[in-house]
């Protein structure tokens, strides 16, 4: 077995998982606290990538661009919450699905109007563009940047959620919103902040991935579905659950795509394995979700004290 | 004249059905084959939307994966056609059996969940089947399949030619509407609607709501599969794109736009959807030629507004006319 390849694939899986976490952690909080299904959360992923790309295109360095784009994302998130989202918290889920579906169309069209139909490539600074050698293994530097960036945000978020006063209120809100409100917390402000933080993290994920894939219209519409799978598997409202589920799903998806055909060749004919493996590997995470929902409908790590 | 509906909305629907019955002749006479095509597409989507309305509007099961059944129906025509099997009875049989089995298997798991979880698990199952067809290289994968000939029903009705196909679609729609009408007014439908409003009470009354729902889900899946079979025949080209989750979202939009939980709601909503999809770009082009590609913007705004202000959809507005008419007659 090629251990180098396995290690590379593990790193890829970890990278994908951390990107998913950046999307899913915001999604799970919005879902858990506001009881709001935000299909358009993936649009923030796209907008973040475009923000970052257009600042880089003005000649700023990548890091400055990310910094400004993050601030921009916080403002965008707060505006969306203020104008549309807060009117939908009490609506039923069908209305939320429909309205946020409309928001996706609006965001895609706005990006189309501002940046045009073609994608936007984001060049990396030279010192990030190379390879790092770890022993016998060559890894792209930028891949390590994504992983460490993702871990950093996960760390900050975990401190914020478990150690700060805001985090305490957020966790309480995910468990029992009415009680938090009764204790005199300004729930509207809390919602605004949570939504904007979610949008910022989603945008950050878009900024991180854009130099590899380039920013394009509709780039968030596929990954958001996987982020929803993460949220359901991890347990709605649980940041910890979102973290473990993201890493799990990132690894399963990446490793499934690269190793499933080898695995299936062990007990199938070569031809059959080669046709069945891609189909099965694309289905793996959805099968996982179906199993979790069938046996543990609250997800793997439901937030403490949630009403059954 | 007792057969004329007494309400404004009822009369509107009556006129629409009469118009649809004669539409091909009007369009052929005025030489508008394109409008006939548009109408065919609209009616096929209306069948799919009506099937979604059965579970969503009446049963409260919001499925964000209903387009999967359209894809299944379409591939039940496409894959046999790939092997030069054009017998329509084979296509029809396959469609019914495969979509029923898929609905049964996914329903068994997903109906154990409720609310958000149901939305997400139906979405997951449809993505599963979407990716399955994307990765089936043998049947075109991402690029899809071309169907060269329509289903053949020897010694029965032909499907060749636009008018014949139109009447196939129209009669399927009528049958679907009739079936849904009978279902929801029967004992079965009462249990489904009752379980939507208060499941605990229905269970206390001794109904096994899970089994009722499952049956309802399978019926809806099969009807939607039939819509897919017609769509495959109509477009002559099928691809996994037909079951992308965006398509499922559009189906929900059609039902809600028309009026969820009303028999004719999906038909009206689909009409509005197809009309917007076709003429909104042209309207934008009329405003400013370079705006042609931005038609999603007003479309999305419309969706958000529909949720925020337009409760009850088009049917809701029509029934307001009904109550006004009643008041003035008193």
Quick structural gist:
The complex is a heterodimer of chains A (308) and B (330). Chain A is built from eleven helices and two strands; from the N terminus they run ααααββααααααα.
Structural account:
With 308 residues, chain A is mainly α. A two-stranded antiparallel ribbon of chain A has the order 1-2. In chain A, a hairpin with a 2-residue loop joins strand 1 and strand 2. Chain B is mainly α. Chain B has a domain of 213 residues. Chain B contains 13 helices and 2 strands; from the N terminus they run αααααβααααβαααα. In chain B, helix 3 runs antiparallel to helix 4. The interface between A and B is large, with 43 and 46 residues.
Structural class of chain A: mainly alpha
The low-pLDDT segments of chain B are none
Strand order, main sheet of chain A: write it out: 1-2
Number of helices of chain B: 13
Share of helix of chain A, binned: over 70%
| Helix amount of chain B | over 70%
């Amino acid at each position: 077995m090629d251990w180098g390849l396995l290690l590379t694939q593990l790193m890829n899986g970890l990278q994908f998982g951390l990107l998913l976490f950046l999307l899913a952690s915001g999604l799970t909080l919005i879902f858990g606290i506001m009881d709001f299904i935000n299909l358009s959360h993936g649009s923030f992923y796209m907008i973040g990538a475009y923000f970052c790309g257009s600042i880089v295109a003005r000649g700023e360095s990548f890091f400055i661009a990310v910094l400004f784009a993050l601030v921009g994302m916080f403002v965008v998130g707060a505006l969306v919450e203020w104008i549309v989202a807060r009117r939908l918290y009490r609506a039923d889920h069908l209305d939320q699905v429909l309205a946020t579906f409309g928001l996706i169309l609006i965001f895609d069209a706005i990006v189309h109007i501002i940046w045009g139909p073609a994608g936007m490539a984001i060049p990396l600074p030279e010192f990030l563009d190379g390879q790092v050698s770890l022993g016998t293994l060559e890894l792209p530097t930028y891949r390590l940047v994504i992983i460490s960036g993702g871990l950093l945000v996960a760390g900050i978020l975990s401190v914020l959620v478990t150690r700060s006063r805001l985090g305490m209120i957020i966790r309480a809100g995910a468990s029992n919103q009415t009680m938090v409100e009764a204790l005199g917390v300004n729930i509207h402000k809390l919602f605004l902040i949570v939504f904007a933080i979610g949008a910022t993290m989603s945008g950050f994920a878009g900024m991180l991935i854009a130099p590899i894939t380039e920013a394009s219209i509709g780039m968030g519409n596929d990954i958001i579905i996987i982020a929803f799978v993460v949220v359901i598997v991890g347990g709605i409202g649980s940041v910890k659950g979102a973290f473990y589920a993201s890493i799990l799903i990132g690894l399963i998806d990446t490793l499934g795509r690269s190793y499933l055909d080898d695995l299936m060749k062990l007990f199938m004919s070569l031809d059959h394995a080669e046709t069945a493996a891609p189909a099965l590997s694309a289905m793996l995470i959805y099968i996982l979700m179906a199993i979790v929902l069938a046996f543990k409908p609250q997800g793997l790590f439901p937030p403490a004290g949630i009403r059954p | 004249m007792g057969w004329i509906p007494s309400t404004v909305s009822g009369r509107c629907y009556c006129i629409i059905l009469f118009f649809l019955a004669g539409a091909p002749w009007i369009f052929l006479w005025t030489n508008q084959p394109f409008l006939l095509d548009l109408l065919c597409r609209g009616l096929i989507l209306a069948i799919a939307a009506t099937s979604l309305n059965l579970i969503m509007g009446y049963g409260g099961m919001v499925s964000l994966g209903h387009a999967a059944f359209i894809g299944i129906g379409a591939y039940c025509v496409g894959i046999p056609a790939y092997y030069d099997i054009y017998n329509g009875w084979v296509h029809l049989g396959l469609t019914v059996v495969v979509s029923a089995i898929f609905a049964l298997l996914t329903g068994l798991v997903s109906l154990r969940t409720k609310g958000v979880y149901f939305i997400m698990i139906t979405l997951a199952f449809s993505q599963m089947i979407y990716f399955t067809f994307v990765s089936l290289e043998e049947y075109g994968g991402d690029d899809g399949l071309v169907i060269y000939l329509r289903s053949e029903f020897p010694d029965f009705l032909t499907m060749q030619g636009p008018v014949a196909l139109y009447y196939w679609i129209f009669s399927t729609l009528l049958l679907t509407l009739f079936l849904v009408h009978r279902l929801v007014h029967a004992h079965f439908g009462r249990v489904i609607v009752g379980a939507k409003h208060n499941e605990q009470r229905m269970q206390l009354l001794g109904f096994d709501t899970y089994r009722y729902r499952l049956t309802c889900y399978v019926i809806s899946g099969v009807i939607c599969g039939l819509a897919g079979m017609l769509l495959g025949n109509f477009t002559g080209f099928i691809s996994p794109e037909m079951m992308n989750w965006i398509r499922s979202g559009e189906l929900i939009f059609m039902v809600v736009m028309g009026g969820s939980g009303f028999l004719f709601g999906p038909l009206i909503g689909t009409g509005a959807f197809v009309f917007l999809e076709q003429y909104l770009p042209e309207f934008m082009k009329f405003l400013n030629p370079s705006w042609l590609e931005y038609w999603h913007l007003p479309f999305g705004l419309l969706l958000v507004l529909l949720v925020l202000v337009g409760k009850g959809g088009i049917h809701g507005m029509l029934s307001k006319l009904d109550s006004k008419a009643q008041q003035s007659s008193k």
